[in-house]
Amino acid sequence: MVRPWLFLPYAVVAASVLTLPVTLVRPGTYFAWIALSFLATHVVGLGMSARAATHPRLDPGTRRPWRFLVAFFLLLIVNGMSFGAAMAQNGGVPPSRITPMLVVSVLARLATVPVLLAGMLSFAAEPLGRRARWKLAMDVTTVVGGGGMALWYFVLAPALEDGAATLSRAGLVTVVYPVGDLILIVGIGTVLLRGAAGSARRLLPLLLAGAVLTLLGDVYLAHSTLYRPNELTPPWFMLATLMQYALPAFAAAEQCRLAAAPPGDDTRPRPLRPHSSLPYVALALGFGLLAFAAIEAGPYPWAGLVAGACVMTFGVAARQVVALRENHALVLTDALTGLANRLRLNEALQRVRRSGARVAALAIDLDGFKQVNDSLGHEAGDAVLTAFAAVLKRTLRPDDLSARLGGDEFAVLLEEVGEAEAIAVAERILATIRDPVPVGTQLVRIRASIGIAVSEPGAAPSPRELLHHADIAMYAAKRRQHSGWRLYSEETMRQDREAAALREDLLRAVDADQLRVLYQPIVALATGALVAVEALVRWHHPTRGVVPPAEFIPVAEELGVIDDIGAWVLEQASRQVRRWQERLSPGRTLHLSVNFSAHQLRRPALAAEVLETLRRTGLDPRDLVLEITESALVDDDSAVPQLHELRGHGVRVALDDFGTGYSSLRYLTRLPVDILKLDRCFVAELNGDPEGSAVAEAVIRLGQILHLDTVAEGIEDPAQATELTLLGCRNAQGFHFARPLPPEALTALLEQTTPVHLPTGHPVYPGA
Which keywords, in A-to-Z order, does the entry hold (predicted)? Predict the structure, then answer.
């Protein structure tokens, strides 16, 4: 807002205009006081414009318009001083004939028009293409035509008809000023139709209002000079004249305030030619005057012709207005889903922010959407997006706004709701998408991560802040689990900062030699022999210590560096296992298991890269086991042919965490799998009770029927190992045998040739 002290000089002048009627004082005294008062306000406007034109925080492009405003107020000061001198030469009253000082005053006043026009056109505007510039030129021509017809009908034609266009003050007022006003109409129309950018959106309305008051004041002055030459100037006209000069000064003060204020939000929606109806208003004005003139001239022959022209023009204009509204709706709508787009969402957020209502924003990102696009094609991806948009339409209230921001990003705006209601909406959306949707001949499961940000009543953050908070919460939900929601809080903000720092550090982890490979033994339950090791990567952060894989592996997948990390792990582990194999006694063997993420499986050159690494390190392909999850293959089967190629060279494939994902026999029989890894959650249920061991037994039996090896994970005690042995499980790993070990510790373990037998009769190697 403009500083209050700036209103003081204008308030003093306004009070004097209202409380000092010309009938109570000598005319010379009245006009002298008014002239001096206006001159003082021009000095104030000059000072504010000069400050904005030289403000150190404004860039040269932003300062440029205010240089024109400095010239504008200087010309007003010249106008006021020369007009005062002309009055002084005429006994203190405005002269009726042309004098040199009056000519200087009129020329200075006329010069303010192009200077003000140049200033308004110097403000930053939205960029226009060639076609848009032509359209702008035609619209401005229409506006000038309509405005010119009004000036001609009300001012110029009567002046020329009555012979007022003489070398007199009345001639200058009625002819010269309106010609200058035509230039002003060009400027007003151009600025309104092309739109503004940045801070100009807040400042140009003040300048435009001043320009419109100038135009209306000139029309009134010319009209009253023609038809009421002896009438005293009314106070309201003086106040309007005061405002037309005060508004540019207020705009300059507001520019200085914005420059001194901290950077704020600039996400207000850009107006889509908000005054695009202006040419139609000008058209209606012009034809209205034409019809009125035809009626005055008589019904024959012009009245009927003009009426027909008006009807046709109205029909064409109405059709254009309807098309304009349709185009505006299309610009605010996502073409694929029919939801609102980012522009309409920003408009709604601005409206809610102005109202001060409590509002919640939901940021939604579809998990695994890229895999759908890559594996099934973009048409399938579009079908998923359309299906999810339908879900939003079904689950939201009629007044709620759902928008697609681009790609697989969506947003929901909920008005007058709190945290509980926003969470309920998020859970309702997640519940609705649990059932797979048909895409062509296949069923695709939609999963989503939702972030929720809720504003407090009367303290709504800016649209950018609210959406940013929802995005932070959404990424927190994505890191924690698939198809879940997270509410924004200071804790999520802290986690987001930590995650951002983690991402930066992870990009340098491989080159900085911060990654380590540990090896967890896999033993044969029947003999206690160490038959394989699983390579597990650990990140030794210089300040955080050891970062758990559950924290940095999803980040690595998000950044796309999981491929580099995976290739590094395979290279290091293959070399290390090959060195161990060379030291083993004859008849002993050692296999290597390496985890592969879904992101790695999507690499087109997966098989070639793995085989090249094995060739380079000397590890036999038959000694390598690739561990993958069920969902990695089911969600995207593009890796299946490459896995078949690797199996053709002897590489085996293990299905990790079996029983926790799809666990479908149909998938299991068609996927290239050699080993089932029984998840630790089923192992934990083993307690000697038949019910507790039912699932584990079923998985082991299934592996035997399908001729698949079985490896149990998470063995914590001898009783679990014994029960798994009795159930027929061949191999196992877990803390009961050994924790993940560094290479030197495992080297010592491999050198032990005699297993140590526990009282239960189950063999375990020392050091576990």
Answer: Membrane, Transmembrane, Transmembrane helix
